[in-house]
Amino acid sequence: MKAATLYETGGPEKVIIEEKSIRDLKDNEVLIKVKSAALNRRDLFITYGLYPGMKLPCILGADGAGVVVKVGKDVTGIQEGSEVIIDPGLNWGENNDFAQQEFRILGMPSDGTFAQYVIVPSSNVYRKPDHLSFDEAAALPLAGVTAYRALFTRGQVQKGETVLIPGIGSGVAQYLLQMAVSVGANVYVTSSSEEKINRAVMLGAKGGVNYRDENWAKTLKNQMGSANLIVDGVGGPGFNNLIQLTAPGGRIVSYGATNGPVPNCVMPKIFFKNMDILGTTMGSPRDFENMLTLYEKYELQPMIDRTFSLDETKEALMYMGEGKNFGKIVIRIE
Ligand SMILES: NC(=O)c1ccc[n+]([C@@H]2O[C@H](COP(=O)([O-])OP(=O)(O)OC[C@H]3O[C@@H](n4cnc5c(N)ncnc54)[C@H](OP(=O)(O)O)[C@@H]3O)[C@@H](O)[C@H]2O)c1
User: Fold this and answer.
1) pLDDT tens per residue, range 136-148
2) Are 63 and 329 spatial neighbours (Cβ–Cβ below 8 Å)?
3) Mutate to test the pocket of ligand 1, among 44, 98, 140, 170 (most ligand atoms within 8 A of CB)
4) Is 244 close to ligand 1, i.e. is its CB under 6 Å away?
5) 256 lines ligand 1 (CB under 6 A)
6) How far is the CA of 170 from the centre of ligand 1 (A)?
7) Would you tell me how many other CB atoms lie within 10 Å of the CB of residue 110?
């Protein structure tokens, strides 16, 4: 099969498209012919060696959807020929509250979806929602389940609540927006780009501000009031503004720190407000299943920015590095 493999770090340039053999299937595993895969920032970080637990060589790619070609002899309930979507979270464990230490994400260290075929445990294989194309299904798993768990399982979002999503350019943030709007939350966003704020408003956000403006938090407070729930993947110095923008008794769910650590955290604001700060990582199998149910119920469609071929994986990763995309970057596999 053809696959996008990384043997050494140094950025997207190091990705090699090559012929590889397909390994033997274990009894509990499923062989899937990948129709579409999608990029996450994680894939780009891996090419630079900026990801914990680096182990190469490896076929990249966490997200994918395709058709089942073969099932291991212990696999039940999955038929050859079925159209499926892959949960990229491997070995979550039994407890829905947190992932066990053995938790891993598909596509480093185990071989991922940027290939014509991928092998995953049968427990990670789900029926593809009928209303989604393969491109759309491939765009959903990693960012979608992260957003679902942050918003619902951890954030407990309620209809009519005011929800703030910083940095709407992020892939996870766009799923947060889509899901929060679908359940009737009043969503506000921040971005470095007026165009992205306008796109978010077209997708149902009530408003937004540019975080590059010096007084962005004050402007947002005037526009939005206080937020019942903030779902943040940015961290950094701006996190203190988020604490200020949280309503008494409100909550912040943190899923990332694109902007690094939080300096001089304003502790009294946290305890005087009786607010909650909650952490979250990807999602459990239950979160993944519930996310698919939500997408089917509201017939939600992941946003796709651009599609590349498998031969163009390098270019797709470089395009992600430019940060201009609004929506997922998909690799369509012939
Ligand atoms: N916990 C988990 O399971 C999990 C899963 C996936 C990702 N993550 C983490 O979540 C974060 C987002 O990942 P991603 O792949 O969705 O997106 P990403 O592409 O890494 O997000 C980049 C976006 O962050 C925004 N940003 C940068 N500086 C900002 C600032 N000072 N204030 C507000 N926004 C700012 C920008 O938004 P604009 O373009 O709108 O300016 C930019 O587009 C990353 O840190 C990632 O490691 C965590």
Assistant:
1) 999 999 999 999 9
2) no
3) 170
4) no
5) yes
6) 5
7) 16
Other C-beta atoms closer than 10 Å to the C-beta of 255 total 25
Q: Which CATH superfamily is domain 2-140+302-332 in?
A: Medium-chain alcohol dehydrogenases, catalytic domain (3.90.180.10)
| Architecture of the structural domain at 145-279 | 3-Layer(aba) Sandwich (3.40)
Token representation of residue 234: 């940015």
Nearest CA to ligand 1 atom 46: 256
Enclosing H/E stretch for 26: none
Q: Is 41 in the pocket of ligand 1 (CB under 6 A)?
A: yes
pLDDT at 323: 86
171: Cβ below 6 Å to ligand 1?
yes
Q: How far is the CA of 68 from the centre of ligand 1 (A)?
A: 33
What residues does each domain of the chain span? 2-140+302-332, 145-279
In angstroms, what is the span from residue 19 Cα to ligand 1's centroid? 34
Give the pLDDT confidence score for residue 328 in this predicted structure: 95
The reported pLDDT for the residue numbered 317 is: 98
- Find out whether the beta carbon of 301 lies less than 6 Å from any atom of ligand 1: no
Give the helix ranges, DSSP H, for 40-140: 41-47, 134-139
Coil/strand/helix, residue 40 = coil
- Cβ neighbours of residue 68 under 8 Å, at least 6 residues apart? 30, 31, 32, 33, 78, 79, 80, 81, 82, 84, 125
Ligand 1 geometric centre to CA of 307 (Å): 21
Query: What would the pLDDT profile of 186-215 be if each residue is shown by its tens digit?
Result: 999 999 999 999 999 999 999 999 999 999
pLDDT at residue number 324:
84
Low-confidence ranges of the chain (pLDDT < 70): none
Task: State whether the beta carbon of 196 lies less than 6 angstroms from ligand 1.
Answer: yes
- The set of residues, in sequence order, having a beta carbon less than 8 Å from that of 79 and lying 6+ positions away, is 68, 71
